[in-house]
Amino acid sequence: MEAMIQQIPEISKNDSSCGFKETQWMKIDxxxxxNKYIEYVDEITKQDQIIAHTRYSTRQLRLQPGNKVIDxxxxxxxxxxxxxxxxxxxxxxxxxxxxxxxVECAKSRMNHLPNVTVFCANASMIPIESNxxxxxxxxxxxxxxxxxxxxVSEMVRITxxxxxxxxxxxxxxxxxxxxxxxxxxxxxxxxxxxxxxxxPSIGLNLRGLMSKNTNIEEIEIFAQCMYTDSxxxxxxxxWLGERGKMAVxxxxxxxxxxxxxxxxxxEMEENGSFVFTINIFTVSGTIxxxx
Length: 291
Known about the structure:
The chain has helices at about 35-45, 50-60, 80-85, 100-110, 150-155, 185-190, 205-210, 230-240, 240-250, 255-270; strands at about 70, 90-95, 115-120, 135-140, 160-175, 215-230, 275-285.
């Protein structure tokens, strides 16, 4: 399988930012505790709603035994074994990620599967020959990428005509909480105005992004509203508490306003009225490379 991989350029410290401010997910290898990101991905993967959505997105790849598929931004490899089971031992699975920590974790988890290859690469410059794969996918990656259209173009380039492309991402701006009017303004700022990734509404705009690429046809969209009535889940997996703290750090609200908001939603959980929702989208299509 290594023959498919072109010479992999060394990823420089500034390679991922392209003039944009780096987000936490673009600086995993520089962080003091990169394992916390791996643990986060592992935990969110266990959620029933995420499991169901991922099953749908992988079905949309329409993989057959013997196919070749790539997971762009594979992280710690959460979906690589599932893809391998779909293409079977005579197929090929490739995973790439910008984080060396994530890649090493994925390699260790996949070392029992000889037809799975994982390596470090930039999704905007994938070092793989054109038209190699039967299908390509990425999940919750584009929200962190400075130029999502570049990643889509690369995924199209390395996928053969007639192959499939499937992209999943979140619309963070669709987050809703059943808050009273007394903290509605504070809540709106926390949900809409906090900056914590490059493209918080990318999920809602996936179809438009993919439709601009003239090599993608038969585009389908699937949307799911995820929800929880657990404040702990909203904090740990959907970054609710973290976004509230970021709003203070970014000067959008005061510490007092944050405390008022936090106390309110904690009381709501105690009395059983807390509900948090967020929308996730999968957009899929067929590659048709025009001459």
